[in-house]
Amino acid sequence: MNTSPLVLDGLCKTYPNGKVAVSEISLTVEPGTVFGLVGPNGAGKSTLLKLAAGLLRPQQGSVRCGDEIVTGSPVKAARHMVLMPDPLGVYTDITCRQYLQFFAQATGDPAAAGRIPGAVEQLELGSWLDQEVETLSAGWQRRLALGRVLLADPAIILLDEPAAGLDISARVELLAFVRRLADKKRTLIISSHILPELEQLADQFGIMNQGRWVPVVGGSNFFGRDDLNRGIGRSFWRLRTTDANRALALAAGEGVRVHLEGGVLEIDTDEPTGASAALRRVVNGGLDVLEFGPVKSDLSALVLEKLGVGGKNHGT
Amino acid sequence: MARNPVLWLELRIRSSEKRLWILALFGMLVMAAVTGLVMASFFAEQIYRRADLSNVGTGLVWACLGCHAALMILLAPLAGAGRISSEREQRTLPALLNSSLTPLQILWGKLVGCWLFVIWLGVTALPFLAVGAMWGGPPLAMVAAGFAFNTFAGLTLATLALGLSGWFGRSLTSYLTTGAVLIGWLVVFPMLGGLLTVLDHWLNWKQTGLVSYISYYHLPFTPLIVLGTADWDLHRADVLQQLGFALAAWTGLSVVGIILAHRGLKREVY
């Protein structure tokens, strides 16, 4: 198993119609990391994944897996990674068994055929093996396509909208599947619009918009799940007291913004110590504190805020 | 080559296509009808006057070879057209390229797949040619040469169609372009040849040979006409030169088709 990082360095891609899809994008994903790629439609996420997989050639920049440059070479890239693109294409005129056999051969790895039974078991495809692929629902076709990932058993897996078109139960199963891959220390880059699920899966996140990274914390383009839990560089707290209006007057101070929301004081501070200072002022003012705690950021609200779409609050 | 997974995939997909069997059946029905007509006409002639029955075989062989040539020209391009563009259309190309298979391996798999389809179509003519040969047709070498030229023409057309399919993202565009190229080759060149022949006659250029090479000798059905009509004893060298020119032209076109297909597979996948 390759333990080298995937390095995308200064990638630029402009399509023949003049649309700049990706501009100066750099990213290093360490082995075993699950990276969540977030952004609106047309942000350049799919283009970035295709650039990484060598299916597109950048005008500038390079893609490296360890010491090997794989820029614009899908065959070289395939030694390290498998891309599950969106929209997903599967051969519909063959049976599931033939599909898996074909991609086992196409990996060029003699051991891949031996992985078919394991993949079938893991994806619960047993009862569908001799059915034609076209008789499968979209969810099962997606599951079959994941079989290709299991057969190739690459170090790096690129999943472009893996949950698109799946119902809730299929999404839960997909989540479990991806989690198993992450547990096996595979490097994953997942582009998804289903942010609550991505939030559970990914260790690191990056938001793309108009082909560029959106700076998130202190000028950095990337943030981790811990950053999300800490409120992404800002501190949000909720305070419930016996007198909300007095608490509002007491809590305010330098670098601390407070407002009332349904009888609960919401405190937004630049520094983590700002909330404790506000609490101290409220307690010293003689009010009893009924509830006090941090408000976690959630990915959806953060993305909306960073894209200038959502409200000021990061969520609840 | 036998271990090329794309070839096996192509064969599996093609063998499950109804089109393969319908076209083969259509070819056999046409051949059967032609055979029946030829034999019926000879036997009808026999009623009125004593016709030479040894001509039955000759008539049958040339009629079947003509049918074979027509089927190759009409159906062989279907073997190659859309084979790569359909991968783009169905969005299966990213998965195919994102594997250990090089564009060249994918190309050979697809190419041999469509060649086998052409050969399969050709094989359907063999029983009828055998019947003709048994009834005292032309020398076996002549029958074999006619069959081989037809098959080579079919392989060339299929390769060219495969090459064109590499350049399009939609199968319909690929089929239409293949059709346009076919019309250009089979209709425009002979028309140009006719025009040039008239001009040659009027202006007294004395370039009939050159005009024939430019306009006719490379056409997929010309070698069959040459084989059937040439006087081998008088013009053996000329006939061989004309047939050799056709083979060279078709080889060149096949190479163009292979290069186009390879370049098409190396194109970016949007």
Output the keywords.
heterodimer, A: 316 residues, alpha/beta, Rossmann fold, Alpha-Beta Plaits, 2 domains, 7-stranded mixed β-sheet, 4-stranded antiparallel β-sheet, 15 strands, 33% helix, 26% strand, disordered C terminus, B: 270 residues, mainly alpha, globular
How would you describe the overall organization of this protein?
The complex is a heterodimer of chains A (316) and B (270). In chain A, strands 3, 6, 7, 8, 9, 10 and 11 form a seven-stranded mixed sheet that branches. A four-stranded antiparallel sheet of chain A has the order 2-1-4-5, covered by helices on one side. Chain A is α/β, with parallel strands linked by helices and 316 residues long. Chain A folds into two domains: 6-228, Rossmann fold (3-Layer(aba) Sandwich), CATH 3.40.50; 234-296, 2-Layer Sandwich (Alpha-Beta Plaits), CATH 3.30.70. In chain A, helix 4 (116-123) packs antiparallel against helix 5. Chain A is elongated and about 75 Å long. Chain A starts with 5 loop residues before the first strand and ends in a 10-residue tail after the last helix. Mean pLDDT of chain A is 87; it is low at 311-316. Chain A is built from eleven helices and 15 strands. Chain B has helices at 5-15, 18-48, 54-80, 85-89, 93-97, 103-123, 126-134, 140-165, 171-203, 208-215, 222-229, 232-266. Chain B has twelve helices and no strands. With 270 residues, chain B is mainly alpha-helical. In chain B, helix 3 (54-80) packs parallel to helix 8 (140-165) and helix 9 runs antiparallel to helix 10 (208-215). At the A-B interface, helix 2, strand 6, helix 3 and helix 5 of A face helix 1 and helix 5 of B.
